[in-house]
Amino acid sequence: MYARTDRTTASRSRERMSYDRATAHAILDEAYHCALAFTVDGEPRVLPTLHVRIDDTLYLHGSTGSGPLLAARGDAGLAVCVSVTLLDGLVYGRSQFHHSANYRSVVAHGVAHLVTDDREKLRVMTTLVEKAGTGRSADSRPPNRRELAETAVLALPLHEVSVRTRTGGVREDEADHALPHWAGVVPLRLTAGRPEPDAGVTAPVPAYLQPPRSPWHTPATMRGEHVVLEPLTVGHAEELYASTTDPEVWQHLGTGQPTDPAGMARVVADALDAQYAGDRVAWVQRCARTGKVVGSTSYYEIDPERGAVGIGYTWLGRPWWRTGINTEAKLLLLSRAFDTLGANRVVWHTDIRNDRSQRAIERLGAQREGVLRMHRQRPDGSWRDTVQYSMTVDEWPEAQLNLRKRLRPAVPVAG
């Protein structure tokens, strides 16, 4: 427990106060930014900054170009007050007076000193980067001497610390309970969106920036003799555009044909957005013989509870039709669905006007189930009827044998 002081003792709502060390540390570790308050030449200053806790010291990030932070240099240091808050919800009362917020906050008082030892500073910077993503420090360049010299780090020993929280629902006068107004709590959470790569980045998004995924939502690499299925990334956009410029590739797809690499990048971004949301798992099809990226395919309508998944969003460059790539890609996807994931059912959807796709799906061993009328809109705005096919786990063994026979090279007849 932290000892109470005059500065950390509340004058009202004392029931919300705590001095528990573990609770304070948990809040400091979860939060990503804080407010640093101090005075310089009699003038108040408040700086938003990043922080990281190491044991019982709070380190605050800044720049040596910031004049006020230089006031922490020397034995006297700088008297500061640091506030960190996590906003957990908005509380709506029937009366305006009783609107409030649920939160967890830490306030720390003390004297901060500028860290001058480069080894300590580097340790703090590494820990701060690791807070942003476990494993990130090994996945990025450490600061050089110039960068380290331009970085200011303040060290604040955690001695005078208080925790203040509000949880629960609406607290208002009983007389207001009969008012005809909605009341309650709107929870707030800080959630990460899909990582957006910088221009020129072709490296895949690292695991520490991806949400936890079940195997059903993980685009594992799969290899065959004709095709390699590897997870789709933004770095594939230019090759995908170059391989699929024939308009016939896009004739019956739900996405209009990209007119340039930037358009293909948007198609890829849409697929990755859907994947991040858990609605798709997207791969590129790479020719196993040449290494060239020639198309894309996906899982969709992913339902682990029912053991069901769809295969679609498939497009393949015109020169690679009837080369075995598409057939083997389907074999790999079906094998993963039935043999690895334990699927009970796999489905396909295709435009009723796309006879070529229907025949291809039927050759896989799938059964036509029916027509979904006005199921999806085409890129031109018209409504399409969709033919639905499926394959069940009971049908998979025979279908697998037939697909492997189709892919088996013909044995030459001796003359």
Give an overview in words.
With 415 residues, the chain is α+β, with helices and mostly antiparallel strands. It has two domains: 14-187, Electron Transport, Fmn-binding Protein, Chain A (Pnp Oxidase, Chain A, Roll); 215-407, Aminopeptidase (3-Layer(aba) Sandwich), CATH 3.40.630.30. 22% of the residues lie in helices and 33% in strands. The strands form two sheets. Strands 1, 2, 3, 4, 5, 6, 7, 8, 9 and 10 form a ten-stranded antiparallel sheet that branches. β11 (222-223) and β12 (227-231) form a beta hairpin. α4 (237-243) crosses α5 (261-276) and α6 (325-340) runs antiparallel to α8 (396-407).
Low-confidence stretches: 410-415
Number of beta strands: 18
Highest CATH level, the class of the largest domain? Alpha Beta
The amount of beta strand, in percent, is 25-35%
Under CATH, the topology of the largest domain is which?
Aminopeptidase
In short:
The protein is of the alpha+beta class.
Chain-wise SSE layout:
Blueprint: E1 17-18, H1 21-30, E2 34-40, E3 43-49, E4 51-54, E5 57-63, E6 78-92, E7 100-114, H2 118-132, H3 145-149, E8 151-157, E9 160-166, E10 184-187, E11 222-223, E12 227-231, H4 237-243, H5 261-276, E13 280-287, E14 293-303, E15 308-316, H6 325-340, E16 345-351, H7 355-363, E17 367-377, E18 383-392, H8 396-407
Parallel strand pairs: 15-16
Antiparallel strand pairs: 1-9, 2-3, 2-6, 4-5, 5-8, 6-7, 6-10, 7-8, 7-9, 11-12, 12-13, 13-14, 14-15, 16-18, 17-18
Helix pairs in contact: 4-5, 6-8
InterPro entries: Acyl_CoA_acyltransferase, GNAT_dom, Pyridox_Oxase-rel, Split_barrel_FMN-bd
Organism: Micromonospora echinofusca
Domain N-acetyltransferase: 227-394
